[in-house]
């Protein structure tokens, strides 16, 4: 279910662009990213943990709830598709306020 939300029915076989791979590999614990799922829904998430065995990143929302667990290659693919961008903490707060305004406006 999580994979379908973020990566679609099947992951594309093409390798992610080299620059996107480097950016994804550089994501560290505490870094904020803006994600967009396959339906276009945007979510702010923070890298909460990196597996020492697999290098997979666990991304959580502001409440600490799991949003996505993904490999560097999967994150790079998302970045290459324009669906993952690194954000700054201030941008995270601004995005949260924007989402609150959208919710209140209906």
Topology summary:
Blueprint lengths: L1 H6 L10 H8 L6 E5 L5 E9 L6 E4 L5 E5 L1 H9 L3 E4 L1 H17 L1
Antiparallel strand pairs: 1-2, 1-5, 2-3, 3-4
Q: What does this 3D model show about the protein?
A:
With 106 residues, the chain is α+β, with helices and mostly antiparallel strands. The protein is built from four helices and five strands. It has helices at residues 2-7, 18-25, 72-80, 89-105, and strands spanning 32-36, 42-50, 57-60, 66-70, 84-87. It has a five-stranded antiparallel sheet. Helix 2 (18-25) crosses helix 3 (72-80). The longest helix has 17 residues, at 89-105.
List key phrases describing it.
five-stranded antiparallel beta sheet; 106 residues; alpha+beta; 5 strands; 4 helices; 25% strand; globular
In short:
This protein is of the alpha+beta class and 106 residues long. It is built from 4 helices and 5 strands; from the N terminus they run H-H-E-E-E-E-H-E-H. Helix 2 packs across helix 3 (72-80).
Proportion of residues in helical segments: 25-40%
What is the overall shape?
A: globular
Query: Rounded to an integer, what's the Rg over CA atoms?
Result: 14 Å
- Number of H- or I-type helical stretches: 4
Largest sheet: 5 strands, antiparallel
What amount of the residues lies in strands?
Answer: 25-35%
The largest beta-sheet arranges its strands as 4-3-2-1-5
Helix and strand succession? HHEEEEHEH
| Classification by helices and strands | alpha+beta
Low-confidence stretches: none
Task: Give the oligomeric state of the chains in this entry, treating copies of one chain as homo and distinct chains as hetero.
Answer: single chain
Mean pLDDT, rounded to whole units? 86
Total number of beta strands: 5
Gap between N and C termini: 27 Å
